[in-house]
Amino acid sequence: MSLRYFYELCTAKVIITNFRTTDLYKKRKNQYYIQTWHSSLRLKQIEKDAEEALPPHYVQMAKKDSVKCDLLLSGCQYSTEIFKRSFWYNGEIFEHGTPRNDVLFQGDRGGKNEVYHRLKISPEKKIVLYAPTFRKNNNLEIYDLDYKNISRDLEAKFKGEWVVLVKLHPHLISKSSQLIYGENVMDVTSYDDIQELLMIADVLISDYSSLMFDFAITKRPCFLYVPDVKEYISQERKLYFDLMELPFISAANNQELLKKIDEFNEEEYKERLTAFLTHVGSFENGHACEHLLNRINSVCFNETRSEMNEAV
């Protein structure tokens, strides 16, 4: 953490973050501290629910951070209940969706074309994004996806020419180059905004990452490649859902994943997605940024929406 980080943290009127702030930061009077957390919904258990699996120093920092928090954003009713039970937080929960997911509601290709240009990929290509989470031992062997045959089967099932984007967890950014890539397979681990990659992805392959719930907004196919599910639950983190409860399609090995791609039924998949989003009580509607901006202006600058419009 740099001196600039501390300067901005201590002098800002409004602080918006998706992680815990350091114990060294003491919140000033009249600062408005907003916690967005990592996603609209979690698969891996968090905070108090996962306290036994978390480092003691992190738990203490998290408890202190929750005291500083003025507003906690929630993407769905299920997350609200988790926050009430597990976040060591007794303040207001803002149930208007997740700002970072607003981009996934965009229907135009303007924003998508910018991402294609940045990645030097033709907009005519189809994208499969492989975005798994990390393991405590930083083991890369678990990421043994059969890129060549997956691209072949996606082409057979959905047509078009496919490019595989591999986005490892930020914890592995220094190790991503150690994976063996191939033709039409790109390492995008250093790409800053994962939501932009979700925006252009035609298919997502993940494992236990909460990205699956963000991607559900798009109603596009999501597959879970989970060859180590038993070990993950016993050694890494317990889960809020059994994988069979989820609308996404899971596979324990490459052969099964290829079979699931071949057998994919779009109509049945979308029905499961819709039912699941209803079950968890999703608040996502593409207007989370607007709702949050209105709240910030009201609390910090005493401006109503009409006053904001007049000022434009």
UniProtKB/TrEMBL annotation:
GO MF terms, alphabetically ordered: CDP-glycerol glycerophosphotransferase activity
SUPFAM superfamilies reported for this sequence: UDP-Glycosyltransferase/glycogen phosphorylase
Primary localization: membrane
GO BP of this protein: teichoic acid biosynthetic process
Recorded topology in the membrane: Peripheral membrane protein
Cross-referenced Pfam families: Glyphos_transf
Subcellular location: Cell membrane
Top-level division of the source organism's lineage: Bacteria
InterPro entries the record matches: Glycerophosphate_synth (IPR007554), TagF_C (IPR043148), TagF_N (IPR043149), Teichoic_Acid_Biosynth (IPR051612)
Keywords: Cell membrane, Membrane, Teichoic acid biosynthesis, Transferase
Gene3D superfamilies named among the record's database cross-references: 3.40.50.11820, 3.40.50.12580
GO cellular component term of the entry, any: plasma membrane
Family membership: Belongs to the CDP-glycerol glycerophosphotransferase family.
Protein name: Glycero-phosphotransferase
